[in-house]
Protein backbone atom coordinates (compact mmCIF):
# COMPACT_ATOMS: atom_id res chain seq x y z
CA UNK A 1 0.00 0.00 0.00
CA UNK A 2 2.80 2.37 1.07
CA UNK A 3 4.83 1.40 -1.95
CA UNK A 4 1.85 2.16 -4.17
CA UNK A 5 1.32 5.61 -2.57
CA UNK A 6 5.02 6.41 -3.01
CA UNK A 7 4.94 5.31 -6.63
CA UNK A 8 1.96 7.50 -7.36
CA UNK A 9 3.61 10.55 -5.73
CA UNK A 10 6.73 10.03 -7.82
CA UNK A 11 4.53 9.71 -10.89
CA UNK A 12 2.73 12.96 -10.08
CA UNK A 13 6.01 14.85 -9.66
CA UNK A 14 7.36 13.44 -12.90
CA UNK A 15 4.19 14.27 -14.73
CA UNK A 16 4.14 17.84 -13.51
CA UNK A 17 7.81 18.29 -14.57
CA UNK A 18 7.04 17.27 -18.11
CA UNK A 19 3.78 19.23 -18.20
CA UNK A 20 1.43 16.25 -18.09
CA UNK A 21 -1.49 15.73 -15.82
CA UNK A 22 -0.88 12.87 -13.37
CA UNK A 23 -3.95 10.98 -14.48
CA UNK A 24 -3.19 11.27 -18.17
CA UNK A 25 -3.94 8.13 -20.08
CA UNK A 26 -1.90 7.05 -23.06
CA UNK A 27 -2.85 8.99 -26.23
CA UNK A 28 -4.84 11.55 -24.22
CA UNK A 29 -4.06 15.20 -24.84
CA UNK A 30 -3.71 16.54 -21.30
CA UNK A 31 -1.75 19.22 -19.61
CA UNK A 32 -0.66 19.71 -16.02
CA UNK A 33 -3.56 22.17 -15.74
CA UNK A 34 -6.12 19.48 -16.41
CA UNK A 35 -6.67 18.85 -12.69
CA UNK A 36 -8.71 22.08 -12.40
CA UNK A 37 -11.56 20.28 -14.11
CA UNK A 38 -12.02 18.20 -10.97
CA UNK A 39 -13.13 21.39 -9.17
CA UNK A 40 -16.33 21.42 -11.25
CA UNK A 41 -19.17 20.13 -9.15
CA UNK A 42 -21.46 17.35 -10.17
CA UNK A 43 -24.82 19.11 -10.25
CA UNK A 44 -26.96 16.30 -11.62
CA UNK A 45 -30.51 16.51 -10.34
CA UNK A 46 -31.95 13.65 -8.30
CA UNK A 47 -33.76 11.02 -10.33
CA UNK A 48 -37.54 10.82 -10.37
CA UNK A 49 -38.51 14.36 -9.39
CA UNK A 50 -40.40 17.00 -11.31
CA UNK A 51 -37.98 19.63 -12.53
CA UNK A 52 -39.45 23.11 -12.76
CA UNK A 53 -37.50 25.96 -14.29
CA UNK A 54 -38.96 29.41 -13.76
CA UNK A 55 -37.64 32.45 -15.56
CA UNK A 56 -38.60 36.01 -14.64
CA UNK A 57 -37.95 39.32 -16.38
CA UNK A 58 -35.41 41.60 -14.71
CA UNK A 59 -36.95 44.93 -13.68
CA UNK A 60 -39.88 44.53 -16.05
CA UNK A 61 -41.64 47.31 -14.25
CA UNK A 62 -39.09 49.62 -15.90
CA UNK A 63 -38.87 47.61 -19.15
CA UNK A 64 -42.65 47.67 -19.67
CA UNK A 65 -42.78 51.44 -19.09
CA UNK A 66 -39.84 52.09 -21.38
CA UNK A 67 -41.58 50.12 -24.14
CA UNK A 68 -45.02 51.57 -23.49
CA UNK A 69 -46.78 48.32 -22.66
CA UNK A 70 -50.52 48.76 -22.27
CA UNK A 71 -51.60 48.81 -18.64
CA UNK A 72 -52.33 46.59 -16.87
CA UNK A 73 -52.12 43.96 -19.64
CA UNK A 74 -50.53 44.28 -23.04
CA UNK A 75 -51.90 41.49 -25.19
CA UNK A 76 -48.99 41.64 -27.65
CA UNK A 77 -46.34 41.68 -24.94
CA UNK A 78 -48.01 38.67 -23.32
CA UNK A 79 -48.14 36.84 -26.63
CA UNK A 80 -44.49 37.66 -27.18
CA UNK A 81 -43.76 35.90 -23.86
CA UNK A 82 -45.89 32.99 -25.08
CA UNK A 83 -44.02 32.84 -28.38
CA UNK A 84 -40.71 32.62 -26.49
CA UNK A 85 -42.22 29.92 -24.25
CA UNK A 86 -43.28 27.94 -27.33
CA UNK A 87 -39.75 28.22 -28.78
CA UNK A 88 -38.33 26.72 -25.57
CA UNK A 89 -40.90 23.91 -25.53
CA UNK A 90 -40.20 23.06 -29.16
CA UNK A 91 -36.50 22.72 -28.45
CA UNK A 92 -36.83 20.77 -25.19
CA UNK A 93 -39.18 17.94 -25.96
CA UNK A 94 -39.14 16.68 -22.37
CA UNK A 95 -41.02 19.76 -21.21
CA UNK A 96 -44.56 18.52 -20.66
CA UNK A 97 -46.17 21.78 -19.63
CA UNK A 98 -45.26 25.44 -19.46
CA UNK A 99 -47.10 28.18 -17.68
CA UNK A 100 -46.69 31.90 -18.24
CA UNK A 101 -48.06 35.06 -16.71
CA UNK A 102 -46.84 38.66 -16.55
CA UNK A 103 -43.04 38.57 -17.05
CA UNK A 104 -42.53 34.99 -15.88
CA UNK A 105 -42.63 31.50 -17.38
CA UNK A 106 -42.41 28.09 -15.69
CA UNK A 107 -41.28 25.01 -17.59
CA UNK A 108 -42.03 21.53 -16.24
CA UNK A 109 -39.71 18.72 -17.35
CA UNK A 110 -40.98 15.16 -17.21
CA UNK A 111 -39.84 13.31 -14.11
CA UNK A 112 -37.67 10.83 -15.98
CA UNK A 113 -35.98 13.23 -18.36
CA UNK A 114 -32.35 12.44 -19.12
CA UNK A 115 -31.78 15.69 -21.03
CA UNK A 116 -28.21 16.88 -20.48
CA UNK A 117 -27.79 14.10 -17.93
CA UNK A 118 -30.14 16.15 -15.72
CA UNK A 119 -27.31 18.62 -15.10
CA UNK A 120 -28.92 21.57 -13.34
CA UNK A 121 -26.65 24.29 -14.69
CA UNK A 122 -26.96 23.08 -18.30
CA UNK A 123 -30.75 22.88 -18.15
CA UNK A 124 -31.17 26.19 -16.38
CA UNK A 125 -28.81 28.17 -18.60
CA UNK A 126 -30.09 26.68 -21.85
CA UNK A 127 -33.71 27.37 -20.99
CA UNK A 128 -33.04 30.89 -19.72
CA UNK A 129 -30.85 31.91 -22.63
CA UNK A 130 -33.09 30.34 -25.27
CA UNK A 131 -36.09 32.11 -23.76
CA UNK A 132 -34.25 35.45 -23.79
CA UNK A 133 -32.96 35.14 -27.33
CA UNK A 134 -36.36 33.98 -28.62
CA UNK A 135 -38.01 36.93 -26.89
CA UNK A 136 -35.69 39.31 -28.71
CA UNK A 137 -35.97 37.48 -32.05
CA UNK A 138 -39.78 37.50 -31.93
CA UNK A 139 -40.07 41.09 -30.75
CA UNK A 140 -40.67 42.63 -34.24
CA UNK A 141 -43.46 40.13 -34.93
CA UNK A 142 -45.48 41.30 -31.95
CA UNK A 143 -44.47 44.82 -31.06
CA UNK A 144 -44.78 47.89 -33.25
CA UNK A 145 -42.06 49.74 -31.28
CA UNK A 146 -38.33 49.32 -31.44
CA UNK A 147 -36.65 47.33 -28.72
CA UNK A 148 -34.62 50.04 -27.01
CA UNK A 149 -32.43 47.88 -24.76
CA UNK A 150 -31.75 44.21 -24.15
CA UNK A 151 -34.19 42.53 -21.75
CA UNK A 152 -32.86 39.83 -19.48
CA UNK A 153 -34.36 37.09 -17.38
CA UNK A 154 -33.26 35.33 -14.22
CA UNK A 155 -33.86 31.63 -13.83
CA UNK A 156 -34.22 29.14 -11.02
CA UNK A 157 -34.77 25.42 -10.66
CA UNK A 158 -37.20 24.00 -8.17
CA UNK A 159 -37.73 20.26 -7.66
CA UNK A 160 -41.02 18.72 -6.64
CA UNK A 161 -41.15 15.11 -5.49
CA UNK A 162 -44.89 14.48 -5.82
CA UNK A 163 -47.61 15.20 -8.36
CA UNK A 164 -49.48 17.01 -5.63
CA UNK A 165 -46.50 19.32 -5.01
CA UNK A 166 -46.30 20.07 -8.72
CA UNK A 167 -49.99 20.84 -8.97
CA UNK A 168 -49.79 23.05 -5.89
CA UNK A 169 -46.85 24.91 -7.43
CA UNK A 170 -48.81 25.62 -10.62
CA UNK A 171 -51.91 26.54 -8.62
CA UNK A 172 -49.79 28.98 -6.63
CA UNK A 173 -48.61 30.70 -9.81
CA UNK A 174 -52.16 30.85 -11.20
CA UNK A 175 -53.59 32.18 -7.96
CA UNK A 176 -50.89 34.87 -8.14
CA UNK A 177 -52.22 36.04 -11.53
CA UNK A 178 -55.69 36.32 -10.13
CA UNK A 179 -54.67 38.39 -7.13
CA UNK A 180 -52.37 40.68 -9.15
CA UNK A 181 -54.66 41.08 -12.12
CA UNK A 182 -57.71 41.96 -10.08
CA UNK A 183 -55.70 44.54 -8.16
CA UNK A 184 -54.01 45.96 -11.27
CA UNK A 185 -57.26 46.16 -13.23
CA UNK A 186 -58.90 48.12 -10.41
CA UNK A 187 -55.79 50.26 -9.85
CA UNK A 188 -55.41 51.32 -13.50
CA UNK A 189 -59.13 52.02 -13.88
CA UNK A 190 -58.90 54.40 -10.93
CA UNK A 191 -55.81 56.09 -12.37
CA UNK A 192 -56.55 56.14 -16.09
CA UNK A 193 -60.31 56.55 -16.02
CA UNK A 194 -61.10 58.29 -12.72
CA UNK A 195 -57.97 60.45 -12.74
CA UNK A 196 -56.68 59.45 -9.31
CA UNK A 197 -52.95 59.69 -8.67
CA UNK A 198 -51.08 56.43 -8.14
CA UNK A 199 -50.96 57.14 -4.43
CA UNK A 200 -54.69 57.91 -4.20
CA UNK A 201 -55.52 54.71 -6.07
CA UNK A 202 -53.27 52.75 -3.75
CA UNK A 203 -54.99 54.25 -0.71
CA UNK A 204 -58.42 53.54 -2.15
CA UNK A 205 -57.56 49.85 -2.62
CA UNK A 206 -55.69 49.35 0.65
CA UNK A 207 -57.34 46.70 2.84
CA UNK A 208 -59.96 45.75 0.25
CA UNK A 209 -60.93 42.13 -0.43
CA UNK A 210 -61.48 40.52 -3.85
CA UNK A 211 -65.24 40.95 -3.50
CA UNK A 212 -64.80 44.69 -2.88
CA UNK A 213 -62.66 45.13 -5.99
CA UNK A 214 -65.09 43.10 -8.11
CA UNK A 215 -67.94 45.24 -6.84
CA UNK A 216 -66.05 48.47 -7.47
CA UNK A 217 -65.19 47.43 -11.05
CA UNK A 218 -68.82 46.58 -11.70
CA UNK A 219 -70.44 49.58 -9.99
CA UNK A 220 -68.00 52.31 -11.03
CA UNK A 221 -66.75 51.07 -14.38
CA UNK A 222 -69.40 48.62 -15.58
CA UNK A 223 -66.83 45.83 -15.79
CA UNK A 224 -67.68 42.25 -15.04
CA UNK A 225 -64.25 40.96 -14.03
CA UNK A 226 -65.04 37.42 -15.22
CA UNK A 227 -65.66 38.66 -18.73
CA UNK A 228 -62.12 40.03 -19.14
CA UNK A 229 -59.91 38.00 -21.52
CA UNK A 230 -59.00 34.65 -19.93
CA UNK A 231 -55.33 35.19 -20.78
CA UNK A 232 -55.30 38.17 -18.42
CA UNK A 233 -57.15 36.34 -15.64
CA UNK A 234 -55.63 32.86 -15.91
CA UNK A 235 -52.26 33.24 -17.63
CA UNK A 236 -51.23 30.86 -20.44
CA UNK A 237 -50.71 27.11 -20.25
CA UNK A 238 -48.72 25.50 -23.05
CA UNK A 239 -49.30 21.82 -23.78
CA UNK A 240 -47.90 19.56 -26.48
CA UNK A 241 -50.84 18.23 -28.47
CA UNK A 242 -51.84 16.58 -31.70
CA UNK A 243 -54.23 18.97 -33.36
CA UNK A 244 -57.22 17.46 -35.18
CA UNK A 245 -60.26 19.05 -36.80
CA UNK A 246 -62.99 17.05 -35.05
CA UNK A 247 -63.44 14.68 -32.14
CA UNK A 248 -63.72 11.61 -34.38
CA UNK A 249 -60.38 12.25 -36.16
CA UNK A 250 -57.48 9.88 -35.61
CA UNK A 251 -55.12 11.47 -33.10
CA UNK A 252 -52.03 10.03 -34.83
CA UNK A 253 -52.85 11.96 -38.00
CA UNK A 254 -53.00 15.32 -36.23
CA UNK A 255 -50.14 17.80 -36.49
CA UNK A 256 -48.08 18.11 -33.38
CA UNK A 257 -48.08 21.61 -31.94
CA UNK A 258 -47.67 23.51 -28.71
CA UNK A 259 -51.17 24.63 -27.84
CA UNK A 260 -51.77 27.75 -25.72
CA UNK A 261 -54.72 27.56 -23.29
CA UNK A 262 -56.06 29.81 -20.59
CA UNK A 263 -57.87 27.23 -18.46
CA UNK A 264 -58.25 26.98 -14.73
CA UNK A 265 -55.53 24.54 -13.72
CA UNK A 266 -56.43 24.74 -10.06
CA UNK A 267 -59.55 22.69 -10.83
CA UNK A 268 -59.55 18.90 -10.97
CA UNK A 269 -61.27 19.09 -14.35
CA UNK A 270 -58.09 20.38 -16.05
CA UNK A 271 -56.07 17.34 -14.91
CA UNK A 272 -58.84 14.97 -15.96
CA UNK A 273 -58.87 16.49 -19.44
CA UNK A 274 -55.09 16.38 -19.87
CA UNK A 275 -54.15 13.09 -18.26
CA UNK A 276 -50.97 12.84 -20.33
CA UNK A 277 -49.21 15.46 -18.21
CA UNK A 278 -48.92 13.29 -15.12
CA UNK A 279 -48.86 9.91 -16.87
CA UNK A 280 -47.49 8.75 -20.19
CA UNK A 281 -46.32 12.03 -21.75
CA UNK A 282 -47.54 11.26 -25.28
CA UNK A 283 -49.16 14.37 -26.70
CA UNK A 284 -52.90 14.34 -26.11
CA UNK A 285 -55.57 15.06 -28.68
CA UNK A 286 -56.68 18.65 -29.21
CA UNK A 287 -59.72 19.45 -31.29
CA UNK A 288 -59.10 22.72 -33.04
CA UNK A 289 -61.73 25.31 -32.09
CA UNK A 290 -63.48 27.36 -34.80
CA UNK A 291 -61.38 30.38 -33.82
CA UNK A 292 -57.83 29.06 -33.78
CA UNK A 293 -55.56 30.89 -31.29
CA UNK A 294 -53.05 33.02 -33.21
CA UNK A 295 -50.02 31.28 -31.69
CA UNK A 296 -51.35 27.92 -32.83
CA UNK A 297 -52.29 29.21 -36.26
CA UNK A 298 -48.71 30.43 -36.71
CA UNK A 299 -47.28 27.01 -35.89
CA UNK A 300 -49.70 25.17 -38.18
CA UNK A 301 -48.94 27.48 -41.08
CA UNK A 302 -45.18 27.13 -40.41
CA UNK A 303 -45.63 23.38 -40.63
CA UNK A 304 -47.62 23.50 -43.88
CA UNK A 305 -44.96 25.78 -45.40
CA UNK A 306 -42.34 23.24 -44.36
CA UNK A 307 -44.30 20.43 -46.05
CA UNK A 308 -44.68 22.54 -49.20
CA UNK A 309 -40.95 23.31 -49.21
CA UNK A 310 -39.94 19.65 -48.88
CA UNK A 311 -42.40 18.62 -51.61
CA UNK A 312 -41.23 21.21 -54.13
N1 LIG B 1 -47.95 47.54 -18.41
C1 LIG B 1 -47.65 46.24 -18.33
N2 LIG B 1 -46.71 45.84 -17.45
C2 LIG B 1 -46.43 44.53 -17.36
C3 LIG B 1 -47.09 43.56 -18.15
N3 LIG B 1 -46.59 42.36 -17.83
C4 LIG B 1 -45.65 42.56 -16.87
N4 LIG B 1 -45.55 43.88 -16.58
C5 LIG B 1 -44.65 44.52 -15.59
O1 LIG B 1 -43.75 43.58 -15.12
C6 LIG B 1 -43.74 43.53 -13.71
C7 LIG B 1 -43.41 42.12 -13.29
O2 LIG B 1 -43.39 41.97 -11.95
P1 LIG B 1 -42.05 41.60 -11.12
O3 LIG B 1 -41.31 40.52 -11.82
O4 LIG B 1 -42.48 41.37 -9.72
O5 LIG B 1 -41.29 42.98 -11.20
P2 LIG B 1 -39.86 43.40 -11.78
O6 LIG B 1 -38.88 43.12 -10.70
O7 LIG B 1 -40.00 44.84 -12.11
O8 LIG B 1 -39.63 42.56 -13.00
C8 LIG B 1 -45.14 43.98 -13.33
O9 LIG B 1 -45.18 44.54 -12.06
C9 LIG B 1 -45.44 45.03 -14.39
O10 LIG B 1 -44.89 46.29 -14.01
C10 LIG B 1 -48.09 44.02 -19.08
O11 LIG B 1 -48.71 43.25 -19.82
N5 LIG B 1 -48.32 45.37 -19.11
MG1 LIG C 1 -39.71 40.44 -13.08
TrEMBL record:
Cofactor stoichiometry and binding remark: Binds 2 magnesium ions per subunit.
Signal peptide positions on this chain: none
- GO biological process terms held by the UniProt record: tRNA modification
Q: Which GO terms describe its molecular function?
A: GTP binding; magnesium ion binding; tRNA guanylyltransferase activity
Quick one: which residues bind GTP? 56-61, 102-103
Enzyme kind, highest EC tier? transferase
Name the UniProt key words of this record, in alphabetical order.
Answer: GTP-binding, Magnesium, Metal-binding, Nucleotide-binding, Nucleotidyltransferase, Transferase, tRNA processing
Q: Name one Pfam family in it.
A: Thg1
Which domain of life does the UniProt lineage start with? Eukaryota
**tRNAHis guanylyltransferase catalytic domain span:** 33-161
Q: Where does Mg(2+) 1 bind?
A: 56-57, 103
Q: Does the keyword Transmembrane apply?
A: no
Q: Which InterPro entries match?
A: Thg1_C_dom (IPR025845), tRNAHis_GuaTrfase_cat (IPR024956), tRNAHis_GuaTrfase_Thg1 (IPR007537), tRNAHis_GuaTrfase_Thg1_sf (IPR038469)
The EC code for this enzyme is 2.7.7.79
The protein's required cofactors: Mg(2+)
User: Which parts of the sequence belong to the Thg1 C-terminal domain?
Assistant: 164-277
Does Nucleotidyltransferase show up as a keyword for this record?
Answer: yes
Residues recorded as binding Mg(2+) 2, renumbered to this chain, are 56, 103
Catalytic activity of the protein: a 5'-end ribonucleotide-tRNA(His) + GTP + ATP + H2O = a 5'-end phospho-guanosine-ribonucleotide-tRNA(His) + AMP + 2 diphosphate + H(+)
Role noted for this protein: Adds a GMP to the 5'-end of tRNA(His) after transcription and RNase P cleavage. This step is essential for proper recognition of the tRNA and for the fidelity of protein synthesis. Also functions as a guanyl-nucleotide exchange factor/GEF for the MFN1 and MFN2 mitofusins thereby regulating mitochondrial fusion. By regulating both mitochondrial dynamics and bioenergetic function, it contributes to cell survival following oxidative stress.
State the family named in the UniProt similarity comment for this chain.
Belongs to the tRNA(His) guanylyltransferase family.
What subunit structure does UniProt give?
A: Homotetramer. Interacts with MFN1 and MFN2; functions as a guanyl-nucleotide exchange factor/GEF for MFN2 and also probably MFN1.
Q: What is this protein called?
A: tRNA(His) guanylyltransferase
Amino acid sequence: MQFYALKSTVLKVLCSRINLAPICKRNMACSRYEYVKSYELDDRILPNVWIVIRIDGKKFHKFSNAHKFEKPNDVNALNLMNAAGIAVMKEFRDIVLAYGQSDEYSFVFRKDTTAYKRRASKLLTYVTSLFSSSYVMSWPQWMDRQLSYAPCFDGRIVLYPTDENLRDYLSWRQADVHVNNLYNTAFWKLVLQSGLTNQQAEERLRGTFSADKNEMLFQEFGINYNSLPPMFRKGTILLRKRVVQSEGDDQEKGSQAIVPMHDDLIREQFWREHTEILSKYVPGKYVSPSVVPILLKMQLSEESQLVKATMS
